[in-house]
Amino acid sequence: MQLKGKTAIVTGSNSGIGLGVARELARAGADVVLNSFTDRDEDHALAARLAKEFDVRARYIKADMSDGDECRALIAAAGNCDILVNNAGIQHVAPVDEFPAAKWNAIIAINLSSAFHTTAAALPMMRAAGWGRIVNIASAHGLTASPYKSAYIAAKHGVVGLSKTVALETAGQGITCNAICPGYVLTALVEAQIPDQMKVHNMDRDTVIREVMLQRQPSKQFATVEEIGGTTVFLCSKAAAQITGTTISVDGGWTAL
Fold first, then answer.
1. Which of 60, 148, 152, 184 is catalytic?
2. Count of domains forming the chain
3. Are 151 and 108 in contact (CB under 8 A)?
4. pLDDT tens-digit profile of 133-181?
5. What is the residue range of 128's domain?
6. Assigned domain for 256 exists
């Protein structure tokens, strides 16, 4: 699963799942482009640390994934894109009739439309190279639903559909497009929620994780960012050359129910 010589762009990758994916791609030898909507010294320092740790080229490029023009400009600024990982995403929870329109628009833009724009900009580069891998980070909520998450679920279902369409349009061209559908993943943001949930439910850490946070995840274990990154590397490998237009669930059995 060596990816030396390939350039990977990962959106929303200065923390969480995106950073975990970028690290595993760099571990496999790919040069990486990190991205988020900020432009801080620590963002660029993060890329420098990745480059040093894995002996690859790593850059940070600011782009707001809610803006289609900036999405496309990210690909152009990178100059090359062999591997595209559409990961950027936000969430908001509310009943449909109370869901703020601005939140709906932002979630659809960042979670779904950004993947359309980056993919449209990257495909000519991949076709010119005769090789490309597009990995869209969807969700278990791209395959099933929960209440109060209408925008997120609509967007993630859309990401799954977009992945299938791109796969059909690129079949036989050396390009694949797939969606990874994680369940609950242990990130710093999720970790920070655990103490509050312990207080609200008056439970110890293990119980609140098992019975509240992972209620719908049969394994009762979080997925890790390394597992999502490893799955991404696999989809970019020779072994996955004929895997396209499908979803891979990393959800502890959630969608098997």
1. 152
2. 2
3. yes
4. 999 999 999 999 999 999 999 999 999 999 999 999 999 999 999 999 9
5. 7-184+222-250
6. no
Is 257 contained in some domain?
A: no
152 is catalytic: yes
Tell me, yes or no, whether 44 and 102 share the same domain: yes
Q: Is residue 23 domain-resident? A: yes
pTM of the model: 0.97
Shared domain for 84 and 191, answered yes or no, is no
